[in-house]
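# step 3/5: fold
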Amino acid sequence: MSAVKIHDFVKKIACRSSEPDRYQALFMRKITPLLVVGLCCLAFYPRSAEALILSAPKPKFTYKDASGKKQSVEVVDKYQPKKIVRPLAKIDSKIDPKLCRAATIAQERAKAHSRSLCWRFVKEALVAAGVVRSRPTTLLAKQAGNELVNNHGFKKLPVSDPYEAPIGAVLVYGAKRAAGHVEIRTQDGFVSDFRSKTPSRRPLIGVFAKV
């Protein structure tokens, strides 16, 4: 075989072997932009779906109230403690109206956070409102109920739920190795040396009021 034929044969082989490489490079050049766009869509798809779910109207429960008027409320499908609305306390005409004044005074003097002076602040509010003639002398908050009943004309009310206590009622809580806690029921919460929307978590000894 002559040198010219050998040269032509080698050239044909080289060209044939390079054709797939050229096609592959061309294919990758075309598919790369599509791949990038696809990955971007995949990355943002969960957010789009979430936004679509959040924008969807929430189901509502429809009913008729006592007057026959049609009402509707949102259906709650998960626990939402921040949306729980507690009933407002009511005024009990059977108890001393000065207790409502004591609740107002306690609110005006209370701080944002506890200073471990609950019984002292409640004592001062009761004295300032004229509910008691002399300042209670017991030191521990959990002793408040007994002293108010024995020395200041209070009675224990048949109430076991702090939220059902009337405005001005004195709530006394126990504790095994601590002083306990005492607070006054307000219209929308509880007050002692600080204001709170929720009652103490300690065991409730009793709800007391002067009748």
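# step 4/5: annotate
The longest strand covers residues 204-210.
# step 5/5: archive (pending)
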